[in-house]
Amino acid sequence: MSPTVSPRPRVAAVLAGVLVLMLGGIPSTADAAWRTSVPTPTAALSAGQLAAPVIGCETRADGLLGVTYAHVSWPAVDHATSYDVLVGSTSGTARERIGTTTATAFEVRGGLLTLLLGTLLSTGTPIVSVVARTGEWRSPESATRTIGLTGVVGTVVGSVRCV
Prior knowledge:
By secondary structure, the protein is of the alpha+beta class. It has a domain at 51-162: Sandwich (Immunoglobulin-like), CATH 2.60.40.10. 28% of the residues lie in helices and 31% in strands. The protein contains five helices and nine strands, in the order H-H-H-E-E-E-E-E-H-E-E-E-H-E. It has helices spanning 8-22, 29-34, 43-46, 110-123, 151-157; strands spanning 56-62, 67-73, 82-89, 96-101, 105-108, 126-134, 137-138, 145-149, 160-162. Strands 3, 4, 6, 7, 8 and 9 form a six-stranded antiparallel β-sheet that branches. It has a three-stranded antiparallel β-sheet with strand order 1-2-5. Strand 1 and strand 2 (67-73) form a beta hairpin.
């Protein structure tokens, strides 16, 4: 007598084949590579749009001599990772970057301004502005704030103020 073979394994194999075909077949190497995910920038940055910082300026005193400095600050800009602080003049000369910070404030002191006085005072009143950055993305420049010396004595001791 010959052994009998159950039809169940053959039926299961046929059903498994039909199921694979219904689900789109076995993925090829090319198909698997096509399905690889790639990180993308957030929607706000995909169009290169960082908001311009809105800056404020406050004159603060430092030490017993009453030397003053300009404290420039701004609220954090969404998605920004750093900020470039720029100084120029009211005559429209190109702005010079005087610092990059991850903080949302920057102090303009007499010593820093003195480095720029030759150019700035001969061409107009010093102004400061801020640009938000993340990677290579840059925001539009903020509105400017005017920085001035606090008189003849202030020039000697390095006092500056927000105008």
